[in-house]
Specification:
The protein contains 4 helices and 2 strands; from the N terminus they run αβααβα. With 85 residues, it is mainly alpha-helical. The longest helix is centred in the middle third of the chain and has 14 residues. Helices cover 46% and strands 7% of the residues.
Length: 85
């Protein structure tokens, strides 16, 4: 969906453990990212501690990246447009 809309994107499924954190940080350091999208599963409810940890990894590894927080799959492209233009 993102590539079809003209965006360059890389997806990564993360888990709540140090190995996944390291993989995420390595991906962030591998390129210059305009934005990082974190889904509502992590930003709502019981996963806030995990979300905070990921946000801090982004801040450290890709400080230029803006955060994108879609509310649902249908909100992904509108969220990108809202945040990144």
């Amino acid at each position: 969906m993102l590539c079809a809309a003209g965006h360059t994107a890389k997806g990564l499924a993360v888990t709540d453990d140090p190995a996944s954190d390291a993989e995420f940080a390595n991906l962030l350091r591998s390129d210059s990212w305009d934005g990082v999208m974190i889904g509502s599963v992590l930003t709502d409810g019981d996963h806030r501690h995990w979300c905070e940890r990921l946000l801090n990894l982004v801040r450290e590894a890709a400080p230029q990246a803006k955060f994108v927080f879609p509310n649902s799959p249908d909100d992904i492209l509108p969220s990108i447009k809202r945040v990144l233009g």
